[in-house]
Amino acid sequence: DAQLSQSGGGSVQAGGSLRLSCSPSDRTRDMAWYRQAPNSACEVVSRISSDGTASYADSVKGRFTVSQDNADATFSLQMNNLKPEDTGRYFCAAGGPVSVAGRICTAYRIFGSWGQGTQVTVFS
Fold this sequence. Notes:
It is a single chain. This protein is 0% helix and 46% strand. It has 124 residues and is mainly beta. The strands form 2 sheets. Strands 2, 4, 5, 6, 9, 10 and 11 form a 7-stranded mixed sheet that branches. A 4-stranded antiparallel sheet has the order 1-3-8-7, with no helix packed on it. The chain is globular. The relative contact order is 0.33.
């Protein structure tokens, strides 16, 4: 399946903000952000379903905002008040799994279209 292009990420002090972007966005499929933290299984951070409903992992609610921009077909994740535990490699996907369990994120790349991943490091 066609790959997505990601940008953004980097290193930031705790309490700071970063924005991740992914293109092209696809409103006909669920779009999601996944996180691969060090020594941890993949987790779904946030997703927007094809009907526009957004959802978030409990750990990021109130701090992260997911959005889609029709004008430039971009899917974004605004991350505020970042914490060291937010550190990890973030992947965007179109048509990726609704839930993940116990495997690394790259194991799910057979489902849908994925970005290459971008590193987010939050230091205290």
